[in-house]
Design a protein that fits this description.
Layout (H helix, E strand, L loop, with lengths): L19 E2 L2 E2 L4 H15 L19 H13 L18 H12 L15 H8 L12 H11 L1 H4 L17 H12 L8 H5 L3 H11 L5
Antiparallel strand pairs: 1-2
Helix pairs in contact: 1-3, 2-3, 5-9
Length: 218
């Protein structure tokens, strides 16, 4: 099996060199990706907007290389995640499936604002709003949080939290999930380049950072 850092044809590390899987050029199979998504949807939602009140993260719109990398880490158990254990195996997610689902998830465009033509019927309005990703506002000083973000987070995660290739989107991600990941970083359960900087931030800094991140939408 050969896995390139850049996963998609046209983005390969060597110009014009196709991504190879089991000795064959990789070809995206959207039908296969949709089949895989049926399993992912149980936790991450039908549109990959996340689930469990923020326990399971939004995957929609994340970089495909980043998504594939996380699946590889789950498969190797370098990143521990109990819900993923039954699925992150070579039998359940061979390499072609990893690439298919990573690309599929990356191309999902979420609605982050209510549609202009919301139905008048109450139940229909509720159903329509379920398809809109809205991150609940966190208490705290969002302006102070923006200063923390600009100093500590933006260089890797983008000026507006939009993410960079192997640094995931923070804007529009569930705050509950982000809090859990920070706890994992500081406990050594998950690797991060700047753990000491995290540990040096006060509780007020974190509260303000969450407040700011909760204001960011796509």
């Amino acid at each position: 099996m050969v896995v390139a850092l850049a996963l998609w044809p046209g983005k390969a590390a060597v110009a014009d060199e196709p991504v190879m899987v089991n000795g064959k050029p990789y070809v995206y199979d959207p039908d296969n990706a949709r089949d895989i998504m049926r399993t992912c949807a149980a936790c991450h939602g039908e549109t990959a907007a996340g689930g469990g009140g923020g326990v399971y993260p939004r995957l929609a719109g994340l970089n495909p290389d980043y998504l594939a990398r996380q699946i590889h880490l789950f498969k190797s158990h370098e990143r521990e995640n109990i819900p993923m254990i039954p699925y992150a195996t070579e039998r359940e997610l061979p390499e072609h499936d990893v690439l298919d689902i990573a690309r599929y998830l990356s191309e999902i465009k979420l609605d982050t604002k209510p549609p202009a033509d919301l139905p008048k019927d109450g139940f229909a309005r509720l159903e329509a709003m379920k398809k809109v990703l809205q991150i609940p506002r966190e208490p705290g000083d969002a302006d102070a949080g923006q200063a923390v973000f600009a100093a500590e987070c933006a260089p890797c995660h983008g000026r507006n939290g939009e993410g960079r290739v192997m640094r995931p989107r923070l804007g529009g991600q569930h705050i509950k999930y982000l809090k859990t990941q920070v706890d994992n970083f500081m406990a050594g359960k998950r690797a991060h380049d700047d753990v000491e900087a995290m540990r040096n931030r006060s509780a007020a800094d974190w509260a303000n950072l969450w407040a700011y991140l909760s204001t960011l939408q796509d």
